[in-house]
């Protein structure tokens, strides 16, 4: 797993963004999406963008890690994976053949709050792709053989993840700030997966896979009336089921350090951060620009400082992970073990410097431009627009959030950045998780206290 992989919607926006000063306003945004609700209770959003006759499609079910029982971390992902093991009408081997014939790749993924089926097809093939994913979620076989294969894949994936320093650091860090909820165990454990049975998967499916929890998004170039007709024909008779129960997961601010000892490890990975404000907060754009200026790009302050320490391109990034009522800021730093303390000192020093003195206008301009350019890139791609619409719906932001986004970012000042750092990114309130050789790392950390716990 690359350290610079996107952690959040904000990180998705910044990956690969140009550093120019492209400007996106309400006049250049794609047309406002249209949303309607089927008699089954499923919501549908159609958005037109681009010029090629293609469409990105996402069926989003409001169920994921948040619905897992305390004994079953990994159950949401296992349930999603078993959908590919065949339906009543389609054997498992037929599914990849059909997706290949449609010229697409079908991705099914269970996340913290949603399970998503996605693909991109030529517009004329929209009905066939919709029929395929409808069959997967409405008529899965859920048999013993398919369950056994899905569980073996889950165990192999778990073994790989837990050998990865970055994955271990993520798990340990999130366990600190989500001590009582499902987000605190982003990975299952082998004993749990071995204990789970087909009946557990069937219970998850029966309770959570239904029209009242579903939202279908289609983005691209397509015939609006024909697509709506296909959607209604395919999905209108899906069982409504029960809507999701209100579940609120809150991150907690804990100044704590957890170290996973790997004697002899040549490198260390550190996650350091804390809960912050949600995207609906009027101050959020200021925090986004501050994040970009601080460590959201390879040429931001902290990555440049770490590159100087390491003598090579930095493996460091910060991001804002955004879930409903559970948003956090985190910096992930991957360095040689001997440089662990120096890298953390560089982050702490950058925070202190900006808190003491607002950054230069040119530096703020570059950060604003990167945030805006990335937002523009997302809005002008089919899958990017899908991700933005899902994000807005999860946080109940309304379309005004999208149309006013650039205006809000452009309004961020040098003083706003300084205030955001001082208000929201205090290192003396951050949780820290480090994976590496503890005997080498611990003496380095004593020089960084009290900012570090």
Descriptive account of the structure:
- It is a single chain.
- Helix 4 runs parallel beside helix 9 (224-235) and helix 12 (340-356) crosses helix 17.
- The protein is of the alpha+beta class and 453 residues long.
- It starts with 8 loop residues before the first helix and ends in an 8-residue tail after the last helix.
- The longest helix has 19 residues, at 361-379.
- The protein has 18 helices and eleven strands.
- The model is unreliable at 1-28 (pLDDT under 50).
- The protein has two domains: 31-235, Cytochrome Bc1 Complex, Chain A, domain 1; 257-448, Cytochrome Bc1 Complex, Chain A, domain 1 (2-Layer Sandwich).
- The protein is 43% helix and 16% strand.
Keywords, separated by commas or semicolons:
5-stranded mixed beta sheet, 453 residues, disordered N terminus, alpha+beta, globular, Cytochrome Bc1 Complex, Chain A, domain 1, 2 domains, 6-stranded mixed beta sheet, 11 strands
CATH topology name of the largest domain, in short, is Cytochrome Bc1 Complex, Chain A, domain 1
Please indicate the count of domains: 2
- Give the count of helical stretches: 18
Read across the widest sheet, the strand sequence of neighbours is 1-2-6-3-5-4
SS-based class: alpha+beta
Q: Tally of extended strands?
A: 11
Indicate the proportion of strand residues: 15-25%
The dominant shape is: globular
Distance between the termini: 28 Å
Radius of gyration: 23 Å
Give the name of the CATH superfamily of the largest domain.
Answer: Metalloenzyme, LuxS/M16 peptidase-like
SSE string, helix = H, strand = E?
A: HEEEHHEEHHHHHEHEEHHEEHHHHHHEH
Q: In CATH's first tier, which class of the largest domain applies?
A: Alpha Beta
């Amino acid at each position: 797993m690359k350290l610079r992989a996107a952690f959040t919607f904000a990180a998705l926006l910044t990956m690969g963004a140009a550093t120019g000063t492209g400007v996106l306003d309400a006049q250049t945004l794609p047309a406002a999406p249209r949303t309607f609700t089927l008699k089954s209770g499923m919501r549908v959003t159609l958005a037109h963008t681009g010029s090629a006759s293609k469409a990105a499609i996402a069926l989003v079910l409001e169920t994921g890690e948040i619905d897992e029982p305390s004994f079953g971390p990994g159950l949401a992902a296992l349930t999603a994976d078993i959908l590919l093991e065949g339906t009543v009408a389609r054997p498992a081997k037929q599914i990849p053949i059909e997706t290949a014939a449609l010229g697409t790749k079908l991705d099914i993924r269970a996340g913290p709050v949603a399970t998503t089926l996605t693909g991109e097809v030529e517009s004329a093939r929209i009905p066939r792709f919709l029929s395929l994913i409808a069959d997967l979620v409405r008529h899965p076989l859920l048999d013993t053989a398919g369950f056994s294969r899905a569980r073996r894949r889950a165990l192999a994936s778990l073994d790989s993840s837990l050998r990865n320093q970055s994955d271990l650091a993520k798990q340990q860090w999130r366990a600190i700030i989500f001590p009582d909820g499902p987000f605190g165990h982003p990975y299952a454990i082998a004993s749990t997966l071995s204990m789970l049975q087909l009946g557990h998967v069937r219970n998850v499916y029966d309770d959570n896979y239904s029209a009242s929890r579903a939202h279908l998004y289609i983005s691209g170039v397509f015939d609006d009336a024909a697509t709506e007709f296909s959607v209604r024909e395919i999905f209108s008779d899906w069982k409504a089921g029960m809507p999701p129960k209100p579940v609120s997961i809150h991150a907690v601010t804990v100044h704590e350090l957890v170290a996973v000892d790997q004697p002899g490890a040549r490198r260390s990975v550190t996650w350091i951060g804390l809960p912050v404000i949600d995207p609906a907060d009027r101050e959020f754009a200021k925090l986004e620009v501050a994040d970009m200026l601080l460590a959201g790009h390879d040429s931001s302050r902290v990555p440049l400082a770490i590159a100087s320490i390491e003598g090579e391109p930095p493996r460091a990034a910060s991001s804002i992970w955004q879930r409903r009522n559970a948003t956090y800021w985190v910096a992930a730093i991957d360095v040689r073990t001997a440089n662990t303390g120096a890298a953390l000192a560089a982050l702490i020093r950058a925070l202190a410097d900006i808190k003491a003195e607002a950054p230069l206008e040119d530096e703020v301009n570059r950060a604003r431009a990167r945030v805006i350019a990335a937002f523009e890139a997302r809005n002008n791609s089919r899958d990017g627009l899908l991700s933005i619409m899902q994000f807005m719906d999860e946080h109940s932001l309304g379309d005004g959030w999208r149309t006013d986004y650039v205006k809000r970012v452009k309004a961020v000042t040098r003083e706003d950045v300084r205030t955001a750092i001082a208000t929201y990114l205090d290192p003396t309130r951050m949780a820290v998780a480090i994976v590496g050789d503890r005997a080498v790392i611990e003496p380095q950390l004593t020089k960084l206290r009290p900012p570090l716990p």
